[in-house]
């Protein structure tokens, strides 16, 4: 094609913008206490390359939009900035990544008009410490669920 790296990237973004329907046709605002999702299409995570297209969803959620991309075909998002909401999103990402055949990232991102901003990893929490056995047991053994959930050992 005779394109530079930057020209190829810009062409890809233009094609992505042309191909995808408006985000609000695909995503509904996440009510308080709930996690929104876009799952089943490998183009969903690619939408993050077009941060301006997320503005209507952020506006519909009162200006707050935090997203996660745990797998190549999944985006989860919340419209709350509370510690509990972020913790719940992190726990969902952990569970999805434990089972996903195509993991992507456990990084949470906050939408701003200037682009995506990474949210630092969680600090130590007494809630997590108090649940350490439950969390570890689930991740290692799969708890009482089917054995395919466990990453290390089978019951």
Largest sheet: 5 strands, antiparallel
Oligomer: single chain
Q: Nearest-angstrom radius of gyration? A: 18 Å
User: Strand order of the main beta sheet, please?
Assistant: 1-3-2-4-5
Average pLDDT number: 84
Q: Give helix % range.
A: 25-40%
**Uncertain stretches:** none
Sum up the overall morphology in one term.
globular
- Report the β-strand fraction as a percent range: 15-25%
Number of beta strands? 5
What does it look like?
The protein has 155 residues and is an alpha+beta fold. 37% of the residues lie in helices and 16% in strands. The protein contains six helices and five strands; from the N terminus they run H-H-E-H-E-E-H-E-E-H-H. Strands 1-3-2-4-5 form a five-stranded antiparallel beta sheet, with helices on one face. The mean pLDDT is 84.
